[in-house]
Amino acid sequence: MKKLNAYLDTSVIGGCFDEGFEEASRALMNLIRIGVYDGMISAVTEEELSNAPDPVRTLLDEFDDEQIIRLVETPAVLALSDAYMTAKVVPVKFKDDASHIAYATVHGADVVVSWNFCG
């Protein structure tokens, strides 16, 4: 059976340290750790994490490059992100969210996991 690629936005990683999302976030990260899923993050995720508290920022250090795949920005990612905003699928003020979705789409993520719309 093919492993699913799960694109993780920043809220999932931060969720490991947030009482409201800790259980679900840690469960997902454990499934990545044991090889049920491959995690995927983008440069946008890494940039957002650069301003996070230490435990959030360093959580991904526990994973190797096969468990958490770091996606590269491509012209297709940029074009798709811009297209989402031009078509008003994602408002301009949420440009980073459009980028997360574009990275996931272009790089073939099976699912996008985000807690941004929960709670």
- Quick one: biggest sheet? 4 strands, parallel
Instruction: Indicate the proportion of strand residues.
Output: 5-15%
- What strand order characterises the main sheet? 3-2-1-4
**Shape by Cα distribution:** globular
The structural class is: alpha/beta
Beta strand count: 4
Q: How many H/I helical runs?
A: 6
Q: Mean pLDDT, as a whole number?
A: 92
| Radius of gyration, in angstroms, nearest whole number | 14 Å
Whole-Å distance between the termini? 33 Å
Ranges where pLDDT stays below 50 over 5 or more residues in a row are none
Helix/strand order: EHHEHHEHHE
Oligomeric state: single chain
**Helicity range of the residues?**
40-55%
In short:
This protein is an alpha/beta fold and 119 residues long.
Key descriptive features of the protein:
single chain; about 120 residues; alpha/beta; four-stranded parallel sheet; about 15% strand; globular
Question: Please, could you describe this protein's structure?
Answer:
- This protein is α/β, with parallel strands linked by helices and 119 residues long.
- It has helices at residues 10-15, 22-33, 43-49, 54-58, 75-86, 95-106, and strands spanning 4-8, 37-41, 68-70, 111-113.
- It has six helices and four strands.
- The protein has a four-stranded parallel sheet, with helices on both faces.
- The longest helix is centred in the first third of the chain and has 12 residues, at 22-33.
- The chain is globular, with a radius of gyration of 14 Å.
- The termini are far apart.
- 29% of the residues are buried.
